[in-house]
Amino acid sequence: MPIQQHMGEIFSSALPTEDPVLYGTADITPKGAFEARSFQTFTLTYKTGRYGLDDTGSIKVVFRFTADGGAMQTEDPTAPNYVTAVSSNGVPLTVSFDFSGHVRPWYQALTVMVSKGCLREGDTVTLVVGDTSGGSPGYRVQSMCESEFTWRVIADVCATGHYVPIAESPTIAVVPGPPAVWKAVLPTMRRPGEAFRLGIKAEDAHGNPSDQVDATVRLKPSIAVNGLPETVSLKPGQRSLTVYGLSITNVDTGGDVTLQITLEDLNGAALAITNPLIIRDGALAEYWGDMHGQSGESVGLNTAREYFTFARDMAFLDATSHQANDFQINSAFWGHVNALTAEYHEDGRFLTVPGYEWSGNTGVGGDRNVYFRHEGRIIRRSSHALIADRKEIDTDSPTARQLFEDLAANEEDVVVYAHIGGRPADVAYAHDARLETAMEIHSAWGTFEWLMEDCFREGYRVGVVTNSDGHKGRPGASYPGASKFGAYGGITCFLMRELTRDAWFDCLRNRRHYATTGDRIHIDLAVEGDFERYDADPLAYPQASASPAQRLGMGDIARSNGDTATMKATVHARAPIERIDVMRGMEILETIRNPAPIKGRGRLRVLWRGAMVKGRGARADWKGRASFQGCEILRTQEINAWNPDRPLVQSEPAVLEWDSVTAGNFGAFDVWLEESDNAEVEIETNHATARFELSEIGSEDVVIPAGGLDLEVKLCRLPEEMAAGPLTVDVDIPVMDEGDTPIWIRVTTEDGFQAWTSPVYLFRN
Questions:
Q1: What is the mean pLDDT of each run of 10 residues along the chain (765 residues)?
Q2: Structural domains of the chain, ranges and CATH numbers in brackets
Q3: Within a 13 Å sphere around the CA of 176, how many CA atoms are in the beta-carbon half?
Q4: N vs C: which end of the chain shows fewer Cβ within 10 Å?
């Protein structure tokens, strides 16, 4: 079935005629495949149909909300993305581009209006997008791959203000560029003898797995691995390579074994290193998933089938779910996505979970993710906003409260996440502890720790997840691109006995998971003391029973018989660990920093973070400048700089400038300096300004408040070279006399990734 039949989209029900061919036709040249983010010139020719195009009538070429191609413009013929338009009969045309010029999912619109005349049948409008005749370099193609990038042509032939699609809109393909960076991915924990896989790919400069690789690489493990070849080869046309059937058996079960694999070219130069894999005998292993994203059948890109394939074969995930906005899911697509989850699911190899995003307005609860254990369940939409077929409208759940009531009344085998997307979840308005087990606190939209703060305030006991909320067809490896998103998408680690749906639901209902901003980090956390551990949340299940325990794992709920508890944690990461924050609720009790000594004064980290508000306007645009006096810049390193179009710039010998976006997450750079005794730095941003003597800045953060929602700039010293390897925590935590004591940690690595554990919930009374 064509993707258009799976799409919830609304056009006028009043049509000039039933045959869309009579509204005109369109063609584009050149056709074919074009490299992501390259400059190109396209000529789109619209030919009028039976009705012609009346005076003040117009056509629109519309593009998806997520497309991040260049902003088309008609003012400067020397600048990128210059557009021209002419009519075959000489009638004047008015051309404009607006990122919000049409309706979802086709928000972006290039509009061509006829004025002072009309077009008759057979006349043409010729659009040149990326016209280079005046010196423009052309049109900047979007940064992510898309098998059918559609130039959707809609026409208002009768000048009524109502646009209808022509019969067939032209398409091109957007394909990867050459390899820029290699990636190698392992799981983070397996048991001795248990099979695992190694994933290898080379991404282009914009995060797309490249199909232009022609290389043989050497695999250099830190310990012996059964089944690991000495070399592997990627050939042109391949976008990734997976080595299956690996295992480690020669393990002393008395202790952990850590594996990392280095990719080298045949000359011995290192290309990439994997995340650490811990081999440990125990009941649980660790499986990684991105359970929240969508495809081109709703507001994203590419097809749902391509979505699942990417998750499994190019992001090397263990688990995923497709989460389209419910008000765009027509009956045909709900059946299709359920068929896909059944097709792609394979116990022990790749886990899929059927579900959808309940997308109610914030005033009635805000965004939720709904996951069913089985296919074929009733979809309870928040509305039919973009679905013309009304036959299922009686199954809608128009508020989050109603959603929870309907799911419970129907005895659905289901779990729910709350998340912050276009419509921030209001967990104070609605929450059901029996169903809503987790909060998504990071995605491509940003970082939203305040969602957990809301839960702590309300007394909820929930786990932490992160996902991509990806719209760009790259679940599990979701770069934000060059448009509205400012963060790399998250992934969640599920601690499970096996890779099955039963184990996944058990994991979620017991909050046995932790989450990161995209890198695979291993976290082992326990809380020790004198406890009575509950087998379920007694606030939600009064019949829950308790048993004595001296050691708790993440997600556990327990009564504490002592005044303090001891939290112990060990963290392994691919990059050195910069810090671990030990948290009681939202209070940071202690920060453990990388123990490597600071040698001299030469490395400074400048970091900016925060959001504007807790809603659609969360995005904060940063324009910053760091001016150094009395010192020399030796080198710099950007952190969380996901948009190559916005690099850190050394505009003068002692000046660094940045142009960045945050929404609760952070951007940063490290600068290595040769300093004099009286060296200074002045920080100037559009949100805050301050000046410091560099001798005043040590390993503790110096904070410049900047308003908004925790907007701030931070400066601190780091070791010139940071020690690799695990970092451990051993901290005594006072248990609160009243209410819950949620104990969790936040990890930050040297290269800017973060991780959060689900809290352990202690209470006294």
A1: 70 79 94 98 97 96 94 98 97 96 94 96 97 98 97 96 94 98 98 96 98 98 97 97 94 80 96 97 96 95 97 98 97 97 98 98 96 97 94 96 96 96 93 98 96 97 97 95 86 98 98 98 98 97 97 98 97 97 98 78 92 88 97 96 93 96 96 94 96 94 95 95 93 97 98 98 94
A2: 3-175 (2.60.40.680), 181-282 (2.60.40.1930), 291-518 (3.20.20.140), 522-596+728-765 (2.60.40.10), 605-717 (2.60.40)
A3: 22
A4: C
